[in-house]
Amino acid sequence: MEGVDYLADERKKTEFDVEEMKIVWAGSRHTFEVSDRMAKLVANDPVFRKDDRVMLARKDLFKNTLRKATYAWKRINELRLSEEEASKLRSFVDEPAFTDLHWGMFVPAIKGQGTDEQQKKWLPLAYKMQIIGCYAQTELGHGSNVQGLETTATFDPQTDEFVIHSPTLTSSKWWPGGLGKVSTHGVVYARLILDGQEHGIHGFIVQLRSLEDHRPLPGITVADIGMKFGSGAYNTMDNGLLRFDHVRIPRDQMLMRVSQVTRDGKIVQSDVPRQLVYGTMVYVRQTIVQDASIALSRAVCIATRYSAVRRQFGSSNGGPETQVIDYKTQQSRLFPLLASAYAFRFVGEWLKWLYTDVTQRLQANDFSTLPEAHACTAGLKSLTTSVTADGIEESRKLCGGHGYLASSGLPELFAVYVPACTYEGDNTVLMLQVARFLMKTVSQLGSGKPPVGTISYMGRIEQLMQCRCAVKKAGDWLNPNAVLEAFEARAARMSVSCAQKLSKFSNPEEGFAELSADLVEAAVAHCQLIVVSKFFEKLQQDIPGKGVKRQLEVLCGVYSLHLLHKHQGDFLATSYITPKQASLANDQLRELYSQVRPNAIALVDAFNYTDHYLGSILGCYDGNVYPKLYEAAWRDPLNDSVIPDGYEQYIRPLLKQQLRVAKL
Ligand SMILES: CCCCCCCC/C=C\CCCCCCCCCC(=O)SCCNC(=O)CCNC(=O)[C@H](O)C(C)(C)COP(=O)(O)OP(=O)(O)OC[C@H]1O[C@@H](n2cnc3c(N)ncnc32)[C@H](O)[C@@H]1OP(=O)(O)O
Ligand SMILES: Cc1cc2nc3c(=O)[nH]c(=O)nc-3n(C[C@H](O)[C@H](O)[C@H](O)COP(=O)(O)OP(=O)(O)OC[C@H]3O[C@@H](n4cnc5c(N)ncnc54)[C@H](O)[C@@H]3O)c2cc1C
């Protein structure tokens, strides 16, 4: 029935001010208003419809994305949207496109690694989309190992040019988004060669296609790499391959903020550390952490609303069956994901602050916080994308059979999201970077340089190695200090244990390789501690609105105690807690689930997602799921005719043949 809210009874149970929670989720009233306006603008514009997307073949899918992306650009200009509004609008269009890489990597690479003159030359063109750019780093043979890239950029002093070349098949650029069919330019990463000497990997702005007829420029071979995981999904994106055959570019197209090449072919290193060549990756990893909370909250919103609609078993005297959300098993799978979405939102907010802070420091030639920023962005990117990808799949299972329907929105969300565990750094490779940072920190303890920031807890290493958990009853686990100390002690002890084992190897690199699985576990423990501690820090802030802070405290408890329960092996093995204390944590967790239950629908309403953005019948705001599923089935092209295409050719002869067999 039109206009009936099938979740109204659920919404009546709410114990907090949802409108205020929407502001907390958005980050500020201003951000909420911009988001809300842009989401509605997209949802109300028929050009941005997306319910037909899963039916489209690759070429139509790609053209459809071009149409939407260029229409979005037209609207951005017509409405004179700010950068913030434009970026929100693009995200609500909700379709991976070349514009993600243009705005998300090409422009930041020039901003971060270009000199002032280079920025002045290239950024205005990019801002007006008079050139379209991609980020061409990964090659067929090398992705994780950036130092192993094979593309060469050899300086020719005769002509004052670099010669960009792909010497082998494995040096072909492979994967860059937007490269396959759209980009006119790329920031291409290559080995710098001066007078026969190698000088490491640097970024170069290379024009790839003609601005007149879009044909590849001489010496350039470029194409799409082919279909990817899932139908629809990430196939809207033209990930590309690229080969260079001695392509010449002017010297001033090497991005020269970190190192400069002079007219006579000499390299000059600025004060800036060479790792800044990786700066765009740090920036993007930070944005990926923010996106993780968005993707996870979408999945959780769908699974929570549907869990309140769906009923199975438990009917007595002909009354309604039990809402599946009331099953403790459903709650124990769903509510930690809900809590994780909020936790990732807050850690993402903090990481954005950290990134802004490190950027300002870099501008003032203070490079001291760069290692921590690298470790935090790498580790949190790895942790949040892994949990989110698994969480989307768990949400699908939480929706039973209907979760497998494309109209649930979950299969496509999963297919689009899951490469986040790989792109911008494979999650294991990134955790190993965190582990290196931890081992370095442990080795420097006692050197007189106290660890700071997220690693400052290591400064209390002696206390953390010896302390024992003081929890005596379940309610003691609600004490933030008890929880924080548990996570700090676990992280510190796992790191120290790895460091002790490492010290037994005569070759540290061999030791690191041998112990890498343990090191990854220590890095995960450290990253989980960061998320827990940033959630607690959020709760220290003034949070207005009836019951809002209380709900966040409950979610923070769910987040930390479900981790403690899930990883109790770590906490027990490091002897910080006893089995009894682990069991009390689980008792408290169950109690917290009961407190989430009446507020679950309101907690996902606070994400403020339009039905358009969610793109899910199971997650629709009014909960009117069954009629919508029934109608959607009839819209499938297979139901255009009662007798399917192919009946005469295949089904009928088959049936006849079976008749003949039966007669024999
Ligand atoms: C329904 C549909 C809709 C759903 C929508 C859902 C939402 C979707 C969301 C978003 C969609 C957006 C689309 C996103 C587009 C995808 C874009 C992807 C683009 C890419 O993938 S680009 C390629 C990225 N590549 C990588 O990340 C490579 C990973 N490898 C590396 O980073 C490095 O090689 C390495 C770090 C692993 C190793 O490097 P190496 O030089 O060998 O370094 P080491 O010897 O280990 O270390 C040396 C030294 O440097 C320090 N260091 C390393 N990296 C950095 C850094 N980045 N910054 C600062 N410092 C760094 C390291 O710690 C060492 O320091 P030390 O010497 O120990 O002090
Ligand atoms: C959808 C998508 C979009 C992308 N977009 C871009 C783009 O725009 N531009 C761009 O340049 N690139 C892009 N990439 C490439 C991406 O950045 C790389 O795929 C990624 O960095 C992983 O590198 P790899 O493929 O070499 O993985 P590999 O390193 O080959 O990983 C394979 C396996 O080896 C393991 N492994 C590797 N090294 C180690 C180690 N040292 N220790 C332990 N285990 C290890 C990994 O954990 C993994 O299990 C994209 C990729 C995808 C999937």
TrEMBL record:
Cofactor: FAD
SUPFAM superfamilies, per database record: Acyl-CoA dehydrogenase C-terminal domain-like, Acyl-CoA dehydrogenase NM domain-like
Catalytic residues (UniProt): 424
Keyword terms, alphabetized: FAD, Fatty acid metabolism, Flavoprotein, Lipid metabolism, Oxidoreductase, Peroxisome
Signal peptide positions (record): none
Annotated localization: Peroxisome
GO cellular component, as recorded: peroxisome
Domain of life: Eukaryota
Biological processes annotated in GO: fatty acid beta-oxidation using acyl-CoA oxidase; lipid homeostasis; long-chain fatty acid metabolic process
Main location: other
InterPro entries, A to Z: ACOX_C_alpha1 (IPR055060), Acyl-CoA_ox_N (IPR029320), Acyl-CoA_Oxase/DH_mid-dom_sf (IPR046373), Acyl-CoA_oxidase (IPR012258), Acyl-CoA_oxidase_C (IPR002655), AcylCo_DH-like_C (IPR036250), AcylCoA_DH/ox_N_sf (IPR037069), AcylCoA_DH/oxidase_NM_dom_sf (IPR009100)
Protein family according to the UniProt entry: Belongs to the acyl-CoA oxidase family.
Protein name: Acyl-coenzyme A oxidase
Native source species: Oldenlandia corymbosa var. corymbosa
